Amino acid sequence: MTSSVLVQDITKYYGRKQALKGLSFQVEPGCIFGLIGPNGAGKTTAFSILAGLMRPTSGVARILGLDVRPDSRELASRIGFSSPQFGLFDYLSGREILLACALMHGLDANQADSRTQDLLDLLDLESAASHFVYEYSQGMRQKLGLACAFIHAPEVLLLDEPFVALDPASIYRIVGTLRQMAAGGRTIVLSSHDLALVERVCHRVGILHEGELKSETDLIAARNGRPAALKTAGAPDQTQLESLLWEVVGAPDIKELTWL
Fold first, then answer.
1. N or C: which end of the chain has fewer CB within 10 A?
2. What domains appear along the chain, each with residue ranges and CATH number?
3. pLDDT at residue 94 greater than cutoff 60
């Protein structure tokens, strides 16, 4: 099966600091692929490269058979990207931002209006649709950013920390939307520190640590109990995926605070 997302030996340097060290993975159509790891592992850098926001130092990234480049208008029209690392225009309203995104992606006025309203309803933003974005809470900004990524029905979604600051109802709706998109053959790559959500939503997961992909796991096999399932002996209150993460990157030290 042809991969929707193909990453081959990507490296990225910021001056002397190496953020990515030969990163390679591929994601097939209809797959939700999770990329997890500690802060500073290189996840946001990887997403920025895949979204065409920066160039790798070396290596190749292809999405839908197209080389990822910052100036690729065709690719920009076929992917959706959201990250809390990148802000929205504070002095536009939520509705104005969604309409602008729709029109920039080539939707006609009727489509733009209809999809904007659908997304405002889906994410419970209708009551704030006419408010300036600077008035939005962090969670509302996050939902608006996701709506911008969804509005043109992209073939590939790149979602860096999509669940940050979301309320349970919004998470429930977003998870349902992601599953719907994957069932329709779209491809989703996401990162999250919420390992329980990753384990629940994703089909496959890769663990990124110090710029390298250290491990890949088939979560569908894990849920079905096949031999490829997660096999860990973590603490009883840990998810299987959390136990695997500590097995790969090393469990964090816990220092007892004697003054508490």
1. C
2. 5-78+156-249 (3.40.50.300), 87-153 (no CATH)
3. yes
Please give the backbone phi and psi of residue 22, each rounded to the nearest 5 degrees, phi first.
70, 40
The angle formed by the CA atoms of residues 86, 90 and 92, to the nearest 5 degrees, is: 120
Which position has the token pair 């709506």?
147
Q: Taking a C-beta distance cutoff of 8 angstroms, is the pair 84, 160 a contact?
A: yes
The three-point CA angle 161-163-165 to 5° equals 105
SS3 8: strand
3-state SS assignment for residue 148: helix
At residue 229, the pLDDT reads: 46
Eight-state DSSP code of residue 38: -
**Could you give the CA distance from residue 176 to residue 169 in angstroms, rounded to a whole number?**
11
Query: Do 188 and 178 touch, CB atoms closer than 8 A?
Result: yes
C-alpha to C-alpha distance for 111 and 136, rounded to whole angstroms: 25
Identify which has the larger pLDDT, 251 or 129. Answer: 129
Q: How far is CA 84 from CA 18, 81, 93, 126, 138, in A?
A: 23, 10, 18, 21, 9
Secondary structure (DSSP) of 82-99: E-TTS---TTSBHHHHHH
